[in-house]
Amino acid sequence: MGFTPTLVCRDRLLNPRLLVSLMSEIGQGTIRRHMNLSNPDFNVAQFQRQDSITGMGLGLGRLKPELYKQRSLEGDEGSRRGGGCGRLCFILKFDCDLEQLIVKIHKAEDLPAKDFSGTSDPYVKIYLLPDRQTKHQTKVHRKTLNPVFDEVFLFPVEYSELPERKLHFSVYDFDRFSRHDIIGQVVVDNFLDLEDFPRETKLCREIQYVSTDNVDLGDLMFSLCYLPTAGRLTITMIKARNLKAMDITGASDPYVKVSLMCEGRRLKKRKTSTKRNTLNPVYNEAIVFDVPPENIEQISLSIAVMDYDRVGHNEVIGICRVGNDADNLGRAHWSEMLTCPRKPVAHWHPIVEYQGTTGSQGGSCNSLKTPPSP
Questions:
Q1: How far is the C-alpha of 338 from the C-alpha of 19, rounded, in Å?
Q2: pLDDT for position 165
Q3: What angle do CA 27, 28, 33 make, to 5 degrees?
Q4: Among 70, 100, 101, 164, which one has the highest count of C-beta atoms within 10 angstroms of its own C-beta?
Q5: Could you tell me which residue, 243 or 212, shows the higher pLDDT?
Q6: End position of a domain, from candidates 208, 231, 249
Q7: Range of 108's domain?
Q8: What region holds the C2 domain (predicted)?
Q9: Are 159 and 223 members of one domain?
Q10: Cα(182)–Cα(72) distance, integer angstroms
């Protein structure tokens, strides 16, 4: 026995054939009379109530926009620019016998949410300015806006120098896959005016909003040496300091990759060994490229400090360049190498943010000739 589907309309059953007949009739009034739309009790809300019970009709497959809204952080960030971004609580003490400033970072409170989950992964970086070579950093605390650090750091400094020094706290949000976001900063100066100092002094300061334009990525020291008679360029990677933490542990697994560039094309590349779990790796490793004297003016070096990742892709911490077409220190270092052949010339280079590709790969410069045999 066949089954003829029907359409439920309030308490009436409409056969599909009747429905087609109704739709073909002229005028809205005829349809309104057949479906009794003039009845004030007949409305969409009634259908929706019925659908919620039967699971049929309008209730099935309806989109709920509120489930697809993403939490916007721009408004929160903008509202904090004029004021604080939470509070940082810490303890200062000066040890007169050992001549060192003791800093204990206790906790942070009411930090802004930097992740779409509504939390942050905060850590704190500390300098005793104007010295930026000595840097300390707390561990990263996952998914919290009120981290408790309780970590102690020491800064060797003479008591007489304290009026000229500033303690600089930078609060960051750790991001595994992109640039770390700075939450804000706290600056403490005039130590001698602090109550109870040099004895133990407890402070709780508002974290002030700052931009993310200048992020410290660290420094790299290497030497350059060119031997014209052999057409040999030697780059000795010595060490790095204060590298950006790329791992959740607050450290990195850095290695250095050096690319020999010619007119924007990468000719060859070499890399150092990987140093595990450190922000201050020491390499003392030599990388050698064969470059004939007639081509030394055409080439440059692109040097990238990388973070090794056992599971995902290796990440670029930062880069620097040396050569005739490099900027400032990179060009000066290259010129000094050419001026003093056969002599290693070493300099520290700041690492800058990686902005894109360093050039095409696997090519060769048409004018780069085969170097002579050593």
A1: 92
A2: 87
A3: 110
A4: 101
A5: 243
A6: 208
A7: 83-208
A8: 84-207, 216-349
A9: no
A10: 18
**pLDDT at residue 260 tops 70:** yes
Instruction: Report how many domains make up the chain.
Output: 2
The Cα-based distances of 271 to 13, 285, 286, 298 in angstroms read 79, 9, 10, 22
Are 323 and 236 contained in the same domain? yes
Q: What is the pLDDT of residue 71?
A: 40
The band of 362, judged by pLDDT with boundaries at 50, 70 and 90, is: low
Q: What is the pLDDT of residue 134?
A: 81
Residues 252, 182: Cα–Cα separation, whole Å: 19
Residue 290's pLDDT band, with cuts at 50, 70 and 90, is very high
With a cut of 80, say whether residue 302 has pLDDT above it.
yes
Q: Which of 301, 297, 216 is nearest to 257 (CA)?
A: 301
The closest alpha carbon to 324, from 355, 295, 350, belongs to 295
Beta bridge partners of 46: none
The tens digit of pLDDT for each residue in 60-115 reads: 445 444 344 334 344 444 444 445 689 999 999 999 999 999 999 999 999 998 88
CATH number of the domain that residue 92 is part of: 2.60.40.150
- CA atoms of 152 and 160, how far apart (whole Å): 22
Residue 362's DSSP bridge partners are: none
Inside any domain, residue 92: yes
Looking at residue 326, the DSSP 8-state letter turns out to be S
Same domain, 204 and 239: no
Distance CA 290, CA 237 (A): 17
Average pLDDT over residues 240-262: 88
Same domain for 89 and 186? yes
User: Which among 208, 233, 268 is the end of a domain?
Assistant: 208
On whether both 157 and 229 belong to a single domain, the answer is no
Specify whether 151 is located in the same domain as 232: no
Give the list of residues 6+ apart from residue 221 with CB closer than 8 angstroms, or none.
Answer: 238, 239, 240, 241, 346, 347, 348, 349
Is the domain of 224 the same as that of 346?
A: yes
pTM of the model: 0.49
**Is residue 277 in some structural domain?**
yes
Tens digit of each residue's pLDDT (9 = 90 or more) over 7-19? 444 444 555 555 5
Inside any domain, residue 17:
no
Residues 257 and 277 in one domain: yes
Tell me if 135 is assigned to some domain: yes
